[in-house]
Amino acid sequence: MRLHRLTLTAFGPFGATQEVDFDALSSAGLFLLHGPTGAGKTSVLDAVCYALYAAVPGARQSPGATLRSDHAPEGLSTEVQLELTVGGRRLEVTRSPAQLRPKKRGDGFTQEKAQSRLRERGPEGGWKALSKSHQEIGEELAQLIGMSRDQFCQVVLLPQGDFARFLRADAEARGKLLGRLFDTRRFAAVEERLAELRRGAEARVKAGDEQILALAQRIAQAGGPAATEAAPPTVRPGEPGLAEAVLERAALTRSAAREHLAIAATVLAGAEDRQLAARRSLEAERERDRLQQRYAETLRRAEALEERRPEHDACQERLERARKADRVAPALELREEAERAYRAASDGLDRARALLPPELAGAGSDQLAGLERRFQQELYALDAAREAEERSARIAEERVRLNREARADEELIRDTDAWLADWDTTRTALKARIDAAQEAATRAEQLAGQLAPARRRLDAARRRDALATDVQQAEKRFAAAREQELDARTFSLDLRERRLRGIAAELAAELVAGEPCAVCGSAEHPAPAGPGDGQVDRAAEEKALAVQRSAEEARARAEQERGLVRERYATAETEARGDDASAPPTVAELGTLVDRLADEHTEAHRLAAGTHAAREALTVAEREHAGRLEQRQEAHGRISARTAAREALDRDQVRLAEQIAAARGESASVAARAGELTRRVALLADAAEAVRAEQDADRRRKEADDRLSDAAFKAGFDTPRAAAATLLGAAAQRDLQHRIDAWQAEAAAVADRRAERDAREAAELPPARPERAESVHATAEWLLREAASGLVTARDRCAELDRLSRRVVEEVRRLGPVREEYERVARLAGLTAGTSADNERRMRLESYVLAARLEQVAAAATARLQRMSSGRYTLVHSDARTGGRRAGLGLHVVDAWTGSERDTATLSGGETFFASLALALGLADVVTEEAGGVRLDTLFIDEGFGSLDDQTLDEVLDVLDSLRERDRSVGIVSHVADLRRRIPARLEVAKDRHGSTVHHRL
Asked: Rounded to whole angstroms, how far apart are CA atoms 682 and 712?
């Protein structure tokens, strides 16, 4: 993997866009990344990590931290773009974190989501977009690089401080780091899985024993009285003999339950015999009582039937007469219908005669028809006169319209003459309005140029006044932070002095019997020093040092905030002063100036806005002037034409009036005459028709009377009125028939029941007593139910005991393989967890794998460590146990000068640096091989060179220079001044108030 170009925009300390050309820096093989503390050297490496993994190294990925630069302007978005070659492919990855941006509409900010883009350069040189998905880009890069983010940060971005701590760390801390780099989670998962299987198998064994005990308790409950003959088991779950004790007690309980079952069967047989005899006696007593009650009821029904016989005879006679009257009903209906028709025709004739003149009140139908024909002929002769009358009315309407139009034209001429008389005055006023609006527009432009600078000065003055308070507060915070820093520094130095005074006791606490002392080398420790009063350990010193560093950082932040606030205050004061060299203006003065200019600008703008309206008004007035002249000329022409038309209409009106007067006679108009004749014709036609209808209805009524008299005589009635009085409706006849049928049915039923011999014989016996028989039968039933319930209970108890006994046997058989599995899994879990006696070194499975990896790392690191130390030191892996701790992840250094092997924690500062550097390079080789052999053409080494002397520094640089083999480049991140002389290719990071910048020194 080779890096080509890195572009940072508004990232970390970089407020603007900065570009790093790795191709130019890598041409020398070894290049230096330097700059003052806090300039942003490490931020360049963070940007590389963020571009590849969308996250910065874990130590700097603190909660709530933001990647956006505080120096960046609001409109500039944070973005990182990296161009690299990996897996033979030239890629360009661009990432932007989630950030706030100004709203496109309105004030304020809106949250913009994180974005990612991946492009690939083709053979022809063009870029092809591959994806914009975070997940797809992450998976693609992870597959090509072959390393996780933690591995990349340890292998490509070599942090020397982490490896120095790795050298001095205990086995547990080393295991955590190696576990992240080599991804041994699968081995830890195996350990956890075996432990989980062991817990599960153990739980299943205990559950099986508890299940057997639960079945034993259920057997005792199901056995009832029979269970008291067997003693309960005293064995607990998990103890041997539990199954045998439960099986023995179950057998004894089943035997006793079968004896109780035989006794219950004998009791049930006797109860069944007694219940059968009682039931037969009860049935005989109930039957005799039923027959006696039935015979008594029959006698009561016979007496009631005789009392209703007169009513039955009257209903039968009335029904027979109603059925004879039904034969006269059609003639009656026909007579009533004829009578109704005659009355309706007679009423219609009376109404028609009332509308006729008195002389025609007694006229017949022939006379009325003749008068109708004469009036109809006279009506036909009035058609021509009606047309003349309608034409005369239209002429009158036309004359009215001409008069109305003449008055309108005269009014138009008068109005036009009055408007044209004021035309010259109106045109002069409109032109003056246009000139005034144009002058106001010029004035508005001048005022607008003065108003914008005045408003900016007012805003600056307000910010200046607001920042004055912020400056005072920043000064107070800086003073407080400086005091806290001094207190923390004094406390830290005091703790360090106290620890140095008691360092002997601290070293004595690490002595182990039989092992050499780290100071004198003796294996005997006759009088180790003891801790004194107020002993300070390393943890307390490091804690105080951390507090001191935190106070220094707080003081630096407060100082930076104070500088920023001061700078903002000075900028605001300069903007508020403007071009005025006199005293700084106040907010009130600038506000008065802005208000005055704004009012004058508003008034000038309002007047200037009327320019277009004034011009439009002049155009409209000129157009109206031409239109009115044309309208006046057209009105004079219409008046001349209208005079000729009125004379022609007068001649036609005289001729039509003579024709209409001859036709209308004494009527007011021809239409009135025609309407009168039409009404007379209609009245005569209606009257003639009413006379004919009345005569027909009278004839049909007489015929209906004759047919009704004949039908009544034939049905046996003296008069039609008698037949009509006898008529009954269908519902009334059905009611009579139902009453007759009900009486006859009741009579037949009574006769049948009086003929029953068994009821008659039962009535002769003494009264029955079923209540006593029911009491005896109920007692026998209760005894039978109790006996049956006892037998069912005994039978169910035997069946339940058999079922529970079978379940006990099944549980005992099922628990055997479960116990064997538990023993096997527990043995494997103890072996992988390091708690088994078979695991002599008490090494966990994951630690065993990591120990093998650590052995590879130590071998790879030794090759470079011997060159850096001139062949003196060799790193070796140790799996020996220390104290009561587990073995597997020890790391020692062999000193060739003395031939002794000692812990890496005893190395000096400079020795610790190049040992950790060798370890980091060796770890990079092993992790690279573990990742599939991905070639790493660009490496970065972060800090630590300041602890080396000149000779050691030359040897370390020679080793690093050897890494350039096969076109590999190494970047050293350091602020050591001597490295600038030794390494010509440099990337300098400079910082100022507006953010950091990068400069290439090639």
From this structure: 46
- Give the 3-state DSSP-derived string for 680-732, with helices as H, strands as E and coil as C: HHHHHHHHHHHHHHHHHHHHHHHHHHHHHHHHHHHCCCCCHHHHHHHCCCHHH
pLDDT grade for 253, boundaries at 50, 70 and 90: confident
The Cα 78–Cα 100 span in angstroms is 10
CA-CA distances (angstroms) from residue 869 to 757, 912, 963? 139, 11, 17
Q: Is the pTM of this model over 0.85?
A: no
- Beta bridge partner(s), residue 893: 875, 902
Instruction: Please return the burial class of 444, using the count of CB atoms within 10 Å of its CB with bins 0-12, 13-18 and 19+.
Output: buried
Contact of 231 with 262, CB cutoff 8 Å: no
**513-541 confidence digits (pLDDT tens):** 767 766 566 666 666 666 666 677 778 87
Copy the structure tokens of residue 355. Answer: 């509308």
Q: Is 109 helix (H, G, I), strand (E, B) or coil?
A: strand
| Residue length of the chain | 1002
pLDDT value at residue 8: 92
Tokens of 843: 């090494």
Please tell me the distance from the alpha carbon of residue 351 to that of residue 366, in angstroms, as a whole number: 19
Nearest to 365 by CA among 692, 683, 682, 680: 692
pLDDT score, position 365: 65
Residues 563 and 846: their CA atoms lie apart, in Å, by 53
Mean pLDDT score of the chain: 76
- CA nearest neighbour of 639 among 402, 395, 400: 402
933 confidence band (pLDDT: 50, 70, 90): very low
Per-residue pLDDT tens for 372-419?
676 666 666 666 666 766 777 777 777 777 788 777 878 888 888 887
C-alpha distances out from residue 502 to 38, 43, 507, 535, Å: 36, 41, 9, 6
Q: Which two tokens stand for residue 94?
A: 């661009």
Residue of higher predicted confidence among 250 and 924: 250
Q: What angle do CA 942, 916, 901 make, to 5 degrees?
A: 170
Q: Which of 822, 802, 818 lies closest to 215 in space, CA to CA?
A: 802
DSSP codes joined into one string, 742-760 = HHHHHHHHHHHHHT-HHHH
Dist. CA 674–CA 375, nearest whole Å: 10
Tens-place pLDDT, residues 452-498: 888 887 788 888 888 888 888 888 888 898 889 888 888 888 877 77
d(CA 5, CA 84): 7
What stretch of H or E contains 123? none
**Beta strand 938-942 with 157-159: parallel, antiparallel or unpaired?**
parallel
Q: How many CA atoms lie within 13 A of 907 on its CB side?
A: 29
| Least confident piece of the model among 16-25, 765-774, 777-786 | 765-774
Q: Which of 916, 935, 855 is nearest to 890 (CA)?
A: 855
- Could you read off the pLDDT of 816-846 as tens digits, one per residue? 787 778 778 878 877 777 777 776 667 777 7
Kindly tell me if the per-residue pLDDT of 934 is higher than 80. no
Q: Is 216 helix (H, G, I), strand (E, B) or coil?
A: helix
Element (H, E) at 12: none
> What is the distance between the alpha carbons of residues 709 and 719, in angstroms, rounded to a whole number?
7
User: Helix, strand, or coil here: 631?
Assistant: helix
Residues 887-900: what's their mean pLDDT? Answer: 76
Say which residue the tokens 């005894």 belong to.
783
Half-sphere CA count of 373, side-chain side, radius 13 A: 5
Q: Which residue has the tokens 């006269």?
A: 328
Per-residue pLDDT, averaged over 334-351, amounts to 76
**What one-character-per-residue DSSP string does 797-814 give?**
HHHHHHHHHHHHHHHHHH
The span from the CA of 507 to the CA of 598, in Å, is 81
Phi, psi of 120 (to 5 degrees): -130, 140
The whole-angstrom separation of Cα 407 and Cα 405 is: 5
Cα–Cα dist 185/179, whole Å: 7
